Structures are given as C-alpha cells and as structure tokens.
C-alpha cells in the first residue's frame, strides 16, 4: 500500500462515505482542480494557471489529497482524472446546469 492509498483509507476510516466525500470536495480548490482536469491532463503549471490564484503549496496539497482519494493520478501529461475521478466529474453536470438556472433566476449572467 502506498502513501496515497493510505491517505484514502484514513479519510474513510469509520465514516459514512458521503461525509468523507463531502469533506474531500469541501477543501478549498478541490472542486476547481477536478473541474479543470475534466477535459484532459494538465501539467502542474497549466493546472495552476487554469485555477487562477492558487499557490503552488496549496495546489500540491490538494493534488495529494485528491490522489489519496483516488480521483486524480500523475501521468505523462502531468495530472489527470482516474476513471473514478471521471465518474465523479460527470456527476457535476446536473449541479452545473442547476447553478446556471439558479443564477438566471437571480438575474445573474452565466459564467
């Protein structure tokens, strides 16, 4: 068992899976990193640029947490989603559509 797998098991230890998932996704920048990787792998520099003003230290910390949870992996292109990460990413689309509907109802422009 590697350190990433150990981290994933620590996150789940004695907890309901939904609560562990929400804790992982609730970390600042976690959702943004997953969102930016949904169209393919990005180098660390490209991922940082895509995320905006994330610091290198926070980026590396979130990447390690998301790797430990099994959602992203290192590859030749930098970082990419695992099959589990892709499945999670696909679950964001109904929420994305709802967010746009909600913004429209408040008179906000789509982002």
Description:
The chain has a single domain (3-105), classed as Arc Repressor Mutant, subunit A (Orthogonal Bundle), CATH 1.10.10. α1 (3-12) packs across α5. The chain has 111 residues and is mainly alpha-helical. A hairpin with a 2-residue loop joins β1 and β2 (78-81). The mean pLDDT is 88. It contains seven helices and two strands, in the order αααααββαα.
- Which radius of gyration do the C-alpha atoms yield? 15 Å
Would you identify the CATH architecture?
Orthogonal Bundle
Note the gap between the termini: 41 Å
Q: Helix/strand-derived class? A: mainly alpha
In total, how many beta strands?
Answer: 2
* CATH fold naming: Arc Repressor Mutant, subunit A
User: What characterizes the major β-sheet?
Assistant: 2 strands, antiparallel
Task: Determine the number of helices (DSSP H or I, runs of at least 4 residues).
Answer: 7
* Helix proportion range: 55-70%
Order of helices and strands: HHHHHEEHH
Determine the strand fraction and express it as a percent band. Answer: 5-15%
Relevant CATH superfamily: Winged helix-like DNA-binding domain superfamily/Winged helix DNA-binding domain
Top CATH class: Mainly Alpha
Placed side by side, the strands forming the largest sheet appear as 1-2
Principal-axes shape call? globular
The number of distinct structural domains comes to 1
Instruction: Determine the mean pLDDT.
Output: 88
Q: Which consecutive residue ranges, at least 5 long each, have pLDDT under 50?
A: none
């Amino acid at each position: 068992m590697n350190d990433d797998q150990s981290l994933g098991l620590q996150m789940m230890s004695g907890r309901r899976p939904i609560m562990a998932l929400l804790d992982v996704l609730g970390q600042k920048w976690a959702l943004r990193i997953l969102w930016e990787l949904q169209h393919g792998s990005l180098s660390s520099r490209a991922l940082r640029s895509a995320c905006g003003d994330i610091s290198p230290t926070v980026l590396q910390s979130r990447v390690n947490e998301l790797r430990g949870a099994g959602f992203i992996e290192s590859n030749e292109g930098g970082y990419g989603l695992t099959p589990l990460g892709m499945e999670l990413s696909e679950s964001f689309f109904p929420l994305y559509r709802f967010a746009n509907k909600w913004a429209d109802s408040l008179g906000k422009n789509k982002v």
